[in-house]
Amino acid sequence: MGFLKNLIGSTKKDEPADGVAEQGLLIFESVNDVIQAEATLKKAAFEGIKVVAPPPQYRTGCDLAIQFPIIERMGIIRELENSNNAPRDIIHVNEELMQPTEICSVKDFGQYLMVRSANMKITVEKETKKIVNISGGGCSDVPYLAQQMIGKNLFDAASPRQIGYTLCAYTLEIAFNEAQRILA
Questions:
Q1: 62 near 17, Cβ under 8 Å?
Q2: Can you give the CATH number for the domain in which 94 is found?
């Protein structure tokens, strides 16, 4: 019943007077479910989809969630149900304590730029755009990812998800894409 209540939502307007769309969070059982749901929603061309860390009270072993514009909830749920990947819960983010946490952060060290996504980090020399370090995570493919990417130009290196298949490769992909966006 809680699922239906969250699905239907409250009677509040989905778009506040200031024009900023209210957000919702999709909570899943596993990281793989989040990754598959993100791919499904992006393929279906839903805009405003973003992988985030859920509020602490909603972490149940899966430390990722999908943030989405709440006005899109019916279409998003329909799309996910059609792909057999319905979320465990849907949260209407309307309170400060319910805010998700960004999983990506950037640190500028002058000559170098480090982008962190969850526990994975990529460091790039800004002038040459050469990847100088890959670190973090605890997955078995992190050394392989580092070996394949360090020393290569950020825009010539293989995407982490092309050469790795773990949560670490997934979160490194987020950092990799953000570094490319910043240094483009």
A1: no
A2: 3.30.70
What is the C-alpha end-to-end distance of the chain, expressed in Å?
Answer: 47
Q: What is the domain range of residue 18?
A: 2-98
What would the two tokens of residue 60 be? 């149940």
Residue owning tokens 């939502």 = 9
Report the predicted TM-score, pTM, of the whole model to 2 decimal places.
Answer: 0.64
Q: Where are the beta strands (DSSP E) in the chain?
A: 23-27, 50-52, 65-69, 89-93, 104-108, 112-117, 120-125, 130-136
Domain count, the chain: 2
Q: Helices 167-183 and 142-149 meet at what angle, rounded to 10?
A: 30
Residue 94 tokens read as: 């309307």
| Mean pLDDT computed over 115-119 | 90
45 secondary structure, DSSP code:
T
Longest Cα pair distance anywhere in the chain, in angstroms? 55
What is the rounded distance in angstroms from the CA atom of residue 101 to the CA atom of residue 118? 10
Residue 67 has pLDDT above 60, yes or no: yes
The answer to whether residues 141 and 166 belong to one domain is yes
Residue pLDDT, tens place only, 16-35: 444 456 899 999 988 889 99
